[in-house]
Specification:
By secondary structure, this protein is mainly β. It contains no helices and 13 strands. Strands 1-2-3-4-5-6-7-8-9-10-11-12-13 form a 13-stranded antiparallel beta sheet, with no helix packed on it.
Amino acid sequence: KDTVAFQAEYDVNDKTKLTFKQQVDASGKSRDAQATTGVSRRITDKLTVDVQESFGSQGTATKLGATANVTPKLAVSTDYTLAQPKSGAPASTVSVSGKGQVTDKASVETSYSVTQQDGRSKQGTVGVAAGTQIDDTAVKAGVQVANDSQAGSTQSLVLDAAKAGKDGRQTTTSVKLDDSIAEGKKTTVTKIG
């Protein structure tokens, strides 16, 4: 499946940012499409809140989140998402993550999320990633383990590289290797920019 994505951001002022993302299936094999609008507001120097609404061919989702900059080198985030698929029961996801800046060029991230559907825990995911800055390119590698009550366990290895161009635009390339009980091994390559 080939996907084309577009993202735009607009700074209303120094505390408020609006975002819009559009994603469509470029292969023409499916009618999968999704659009997301959002607003991010810095409440204080240490607290930012986000609200996003996604809608598309698979249903809708509302996400509320907050990020606390505990120290200049440590940020903790949490969010709650309520998804309403076009078919099936609604699902809610709660996630908590943290990012620490180890040096000027190196960082470490961790995350944990739980999804519930029909009042039962459906999936739990834990991830750890580390990144570094090499000249004008940010490189990040991570490991993620997801346990789904229906599909079983999936282990993922992700490698991202983001390079800033002279015009200020950023190009991101991501490679994800999945190994799951249900689907076997799969490689996904994504390029945005």
